[in-house]
Amino acid sequence: MPMTPQEASTRAREICSLAPIVPVLVVKNTAHARPLAEALVAGGLPALEVTLRTPAALDVIREMSQVPGGVVGAGTLVTPEDVRNAKVAGATFGVSPGATDALIAACEAEDLPLLAGAATASEAMRLLERGYDMLKFFPAEASGGAPALKAIGAPLPQIAFCPTGGVSPQNAQTYLELPNVLCAGGSWVAPADLVEAGDWAGIEALARDAARLKA
């Protein structure tokens, strides 16, 4: 039987509860995949979102999925083909900037828990109507930031969010203090210059700092 929306949301909540920050990763070189994942997991950030924005992304997911302790998902899912390819590569959850009927159906058919994106109350309500109560708030800062997400949460307290898009060390704690936020997605824990330099110790240190953000 395909995964139900309720089962998918339960699993998404479990993943989002692993750490306060989910690294949003744009990885161009497959050789960086394993040591990058190892550094982030060692730093206390086990849930990893590999965005499908580079030709290497699916290979990166394959490599990272072999790292002990890591929970690897595919970000920027837009089409059913993205979903199928991500699942074959080893992704255990999916993240999308929004949500379409076709994308949701593909994730349910593939038993891939989906963190679907919503930026407004209406979008969140439509997903809740379908049974999804763990969502991505995107683009977070451009959509009004923590004040907007707090306002959405007042009439919709049953929905939890992972804000992503413009989240930084300077504002992450503000999001994490909201009662409807389980975690936040951020790219600062794996900056391109440190990845290119192979500074895995530096990335592990950034991960440790991020892992301390929420008590």
UniProtKB/TrEMBL annotation:
Under catalytic activity, the entry for this protein gives: 2-dehydro-3-deoxy-6-phospho-D-gluconate = D-glyceraldehyde 3-phosphate + pyruvate
Return the PROSITE patterns for the record.
Answer: ALDOLASE_KDPG_KHG_1, ALDOLASE_KDPG_KHG_2
Q: Which InterPro entries match?
A: Aldlse_KDPG_KHG, Aldolase_TIM, KDPG/KHG_AS_1, KDPG/KHG_AS_2
A Pfam family (short name) is Aldolase
Q: Can you provide one Gene Ontology molecular function annotated for this UniProt record?
A: 2-dehydro-3-deoxy-phosphogluconate aldolase activity
Q: What is its EC number?
A: 4.1.2.14
Signal sequence, renumbered to the chain:
none
Keywords of this entry = Carbohydrate metabolism, Lyase, Schiff base
Recorded metabolic or biological pathway in which this protein acts: Carbohydrate acid metabolism; 2-dehydro-3-deoxy-D-gluconate degradation; D-glyceraldehyde 3-phosphate and pyruvate from 2-dehydro-3-deoxy-D-gluconate: step 2/2
| Major enzyme class | lyase
Question: What subunit structure does UniProt give?
Answer: Homotrimer.
The family line of this record is: Belongs to the KHG/KDPG aldolase family.
User: What protein am I looking at?
Assistant: 2-dehydro-3-deoxy-phosphogluconate aldolase
Originating gene = eda
